[in-house]
Amino acid sequence: MANEKIILDKRRAKADGSFPVKIYLRHRREIMLATGIDARDENFVNGSLARGERDYKSKNSRLSMLLSSVVREMVSLEASGALSGMDDKALKKRLSLIIDGSGEMEEKRNFLTYLDEFVSLKTNKGTIACYTTTRNKLLEFDPDCDFETMDRKWIASFEKWMASNMKINAYSIHLRNIRAVFNYAIDEGYTNLYPFRKYRIKKEETRKRSLSVEQLRRLLDFPCEEYQVKYRDMFLLDFLLIGMNIGNLLTLKRENLVNGRLEYYRNKTNKLISVKVEPEAMAIIERYAGRDYLLDVMDTYSDYRYFVKRMNNALKDIGETTRSGLGGKKSRKPLFPDISSYWARHTWATLAAELDIPKETISAALSHSEGDTTSIYIRFNYKKVDEANRKVIDYVFK
After folding, report:
1. What is the largest CA-CA distance in the chain?
2. Whole-number Å distance between alpha carbons of 256 and 262
């Protein structure tokens, strides 16, 4: 996926000394999209207009919404598979139409307008993609949805419509996203309507997503196919690093390794994390060392999600295989047909609990914050977490 940002195009100044403000992205080559907004160099700071620019607040709001529209469209194109087959000329034309059409939203600020404004404040592409999916569901169900019409009865009807072809936890995400936009609009003073006061969003307990110590050992010892080795090593590395978010792991740079520790900000919470790299983990890191990144995955992939998808498929296929005839189709009997990269995190927590490591230490190791995730959260020094991780690793290997 491209990186999108607001820039000042200083290649050619206008008569009044200002420059065009544009949206910059890189697909196969650099693409710049006109926004219809100009600014002087001294009034453009870190991707936004400064106080000296006339109507800088409204212009910044406009730029933020335009950028959100472009990011949302890029996410949709990638999810549908259309992006890979689109050249830069076609992509620029498509995105320019999106920008031109977004001006119509200012005439009527409905629920979707506030959803777009809310999403424009987000920087995590996973979060943006999630809200984009919610937006598409709303457009499919009720393109004219607005705060006045989206009462408790409307929410129930929307939930019933989604439940016809989605699982509870899948459609509950969209309801929670809608609730977040309502809260945002209330905070902004646009509405005091709130259909979720007495509406309970359902949640279904997820199936077990962890391996026992015996199952983990079996996975690590199994004579898997050659192409599966790297994917299994990445799963093991994730486990050895206390179930690190796979997106964080694959996009860490070499400079994130400091004095034997990986230090980074977690994608989901933007919280500073520091994990001691044990010898078993360091051996895998050195085996797959990247040029600029910690691991070589991003030397090949433009988006780590492509690798994760292949990784999950490969993990699911590890197991006994038989082939019918010479060159015939393989028949597989997977060890763990539901496994995914996320199981590394659950497995670490499960084994830590088996070893009677205190709940507070496990919570600190997993970077949980105070609230529903845990009942108690203590500011631990890293030593307690380091000792817990070493204990878990020894339990598996010794």
Report:
1. 77
2. 5
173-194: average pLDDT: 89
* pLDDT: which is higher, 16 or 250: 250
User: Dihedrals φ, ψ of 263, to 5°?
Assistant: -120, 125
Over 70: is that where the pLDDT of 381 sits? no
Q: CA 250 to CA 244: how far, in whole Å?
A: 10
User: Which residue in the block uniquely carries the two structure tokens 């989605």?
Assistant: 166
Percent of the chain clearing pLDDT 70 (strictly above): 90
Distance CA 92, CA 32 (A): 8
CA distance 248 to 124: 12
Question: Whole-angstrom Cα distance, residue 395 to residue 355?
Answer: 8
Dihedral of the alpha carbons of 383, 386, 391, 393, in degrees to the nearest 10: -170
Q: What is the pLDDT of residues 316-334, one digit of tens each?
A: 999 988 877 666 677 889 9
What's the CA gap between 134 and 139, in Å, rounded?
9
CA distance 366 to 243: 7
Q: How far apart are CA 233 and CA 217, in angstroms?
A: 13
More confident site: 380 or 122:
122
C-alpha neighbours within 13 Å on the C-beta side of residue 181: 25
Phi-psi region of 320 (alpha: psi -120 to 50; beta: other; left: phi over 0): beta
Q: Which amino acid is at 161?
A: W
Predicted TM-score (pTM) of this structure: 0.59
CA distances from 175 to 143, 157, 159, 355 (A): 16, 12, 8, 38
According to the 3-state scheme, what is the secondary structure of 7-27?
EECCCCCCCCCCEEEEEEEEC
